[in-house]
Design brief:
homodimer, 120 residues, three-stranded antiparallel beta sheet, 62% helix, DNA-binding
Chain lengths: 120, 120
DNA sequence: TAAACATATGAACAGATATTCATATGAAAG
DNA sequence: CTTTCATATGAATATCTGTTCATATGTTTA
């Protein structure tokens, strides 16, 4: 693949060639990087963060979450869909009600790390 | 504060009142939740993920990164600004060149957790 | 079966965001 | 001090995203 910016590269490129080669060797493949960004996008919205935080404590139904956050049922349902597609939550049906709960052990850790970063 | 959706809440609310109270007690304050979402937004773009990954291996100047990712100097500079505002990288000047490097120990851990989640 | 209820979904719109383009800044070299 | 080089920045734009509104789906109860 031809690099559009190959030519406009700074003159001192040869100075950091070695470092760049090291970086290239350790860079994950494109698809994996896109998947990571997609995953972080899910965490990158305060409504979704609130939903995940809520589910730390207990499984909840859609209307519970809507009431908790003071938002519409529809808005919450749309967001739960996003979170579920990222495999961060799972759900179960109980009659008319659908309960959501965390699906992954990493959610708490990821959010915990972010919290630590912010507390510095 | 009056909850616009208080009334449209599902009838069975009283069933999960206890769970909701538990959740409310553990929910961080609004500002903290917004800050967490802001932080994750920074990770939620593949260009920025690539930049952070690159800096795992070595400090790099702006044009190194632009060449590595095949993007314009301006685009990279704009993104470095975002990452720096989130205090994830720091920089130092050496003559005309400015070198960027990771500023935080949590970056690797956060990205590592995401990677683990995706590998399941 | 009809009505009520909990949730899901599609379309639309307003607001956010990433890149480009042009240009500014700041340092070094001539 | 003028030019060159590395980087930063502001404005413009095309794309993406979160919520709303209206309505559909699927379950229970009368």
């Amino acid at each position: 693949m031809i690099d559009q910016y190959e030519t406009e590269r700074c003159d001192q490129e040869f100075v950091h060639t070695e470092a760049l080669q090291q970086v290239r060797n350790h860079m994950p493949r494109e698809e994996e990087l896109l998947d990571m960004a997609e995953l972080f996008k899910v965490f990158g919205d305060s409504t979704r963060i609130k939903i995940l935080y809520a589910l730390f404590e207990s499984e909840l139904c859609v209307c519970d979450i809507a009431a908790l956050l003071g938002m519409s049922q529809s808005a919450i349902s749309h967001q739960l869909r996003v979170i579920k597609q990222a495999k961060l939550v799972k759900n179960r049906r109980d009659g008319k009600t659908i309960f959501y709960s965390l699906a992954d052990v990493h959610v708490k850790t990821i959010i915990g790390m972010a919290k630590e970063h912010l507390e510095e």
